[in-house]
Specification:
Blueprint (H helix, E strand, L loop, with lengths): L8 H8 L7 H11 L7 E5 L5 H10 L4 E6 L13 E5 L17 E6 L9 H22 E12 L2 H10 L3 E7 L10 E9 L2
Helix pairs in contact: 4-5
The protein binds S-adenosylmethionine.
S-adenosylmethionine (SAM) binds next to α3 and β2.
Length: 198
C-alpha cells in the first residue's frame, strides 16, 4: 500500500506498457470482468494521481468520451496533453458544483481508488478507511447519473461489510472483487456497483 513500490511482475509490466502505476491492472481486471466503461462515457476518477486509471480509461472511452481526474496532489503534467482527459488539483469533498469541473451533466461512471493516509494501527486505519468510503457514497447523488456505474476501493473490516450490505440496494448489481494484482497480504478489495438507482 501507500507509496511503497514493490518491484514485482506488475510493476515491471506497468513500466513496459507505459503506465504510470501498477494499479492500472486492478482497474483493467475490474473492467474486463464487469464491463464498467464504454466508448463515449463521461467518467470521473476520484484521487486519480499519478494517473494509471486515467490512462486506461482514456483508451477505453475514446475520442467521444471524457475522463476527469481529481486529486489533492499537484496536477500530473504527463496527462494534460491527452485530448479526452482533464485533471484538477482539488479535494473531492470541496466541489460544490459540477461546473467547477467544466462539465454540465452528471457522470456515467465514478471511480475511486482513494485511500486515507495509513498509520499502521489497524483499527484506526480501518475506521478512517470506512469513513472515507461512506463519504464517497455520500457524493454519489451529486456526481453519478441514474443508471451509472461505480467502482470504489475498500479496506476490509466487519464494519465495512455491514455498511456495504446496506448500500447494495443503491444499485441493480453489486459485486466485490480482489484483483489478482492486489498483494495477497493487502486487505483491500473493490466494490463494483452497476446501474445506480438514484
Ligand atoms: C492510490 S492513489 C490513486 C492511484 C491511481 N488510481 C492510479 O492508478 O494512478 C490515491 C490518491 O487519492 C488521493 N486522495 C485522497 N484523498 C483525497 C481527496 N479528499 N480528494 C482528492 N484526492 C484524494 C491521494 O492524494 C492519492 O493520490
Amino acid at each position: 500500500m501507500g507509496n511503497f513500490k514493490v518491484k514485482d511482475h506488475y510493476f515491471e509490466k506497468a513500466k513496459k506498457d507505459n503506465y504510470v502505476a501498477r494499479s492500472v491492472y486492478k482497474l483493467e481486471e475490474i473492467d474486463q470482468q464487469y464491463k464498467i466503461l464504454k466508448p463515449g462515457n463521461l467518467v470521473v476518477d476520484f484521487g486519480y494521481f499519478p494517473g494509471s486509471w486515467i490512462q486506461y480509461t482514456s483508451k477505453v472511452i475514446g475520442d467521444t468520451g471524457r475522463v476527469v481526474g481529481i486529486d489533492i496532489q499537484e496536477v500530473n503534467k504527463k496527462l494534460t496533453g491527452i485530448p479526452n482527459v482533464r485533471v484538477y488539483q482539488k479535494d473531492i469533498f470541496n466541489i460544490s458544483n459540477l461546473s467547477e469541473l467544466d462539465v454540465k451533466d452528471q457522470f456515467d461512471v465514478v471511480l475511486s481508488d482513494m485511500a486515507p493516509n495509513t498509520t499502521g494501527m489497524q483499527t484506526l486505519d480501518q475506521i478512517r478507511s470506512l469513513n472515507l468510503v461512506e463519504s464517497v457514497f455520500g457524493l454519489l447523488p451529486k456526481f453519478l447519473r441514474p443508471g451509472g456505474n461505480f467502482v470504489i476501493k475498500v479496506f476490509d473490516s466487519q464494519d465495512a461489510q455491514n455498511y456495504l450490505k446496506e448500500q447494495k440496494k443503491l444499485f441493480n448489481e453489486f459485486n466485490y472483487l480482489k484483483p489478482k494484482s492486489t498483494r495477497s497480504v493487502s486487505k483491500e478489495f473493490f466494490v463494483i456497483g452497476k446501474h445506480f438507482k438514484a
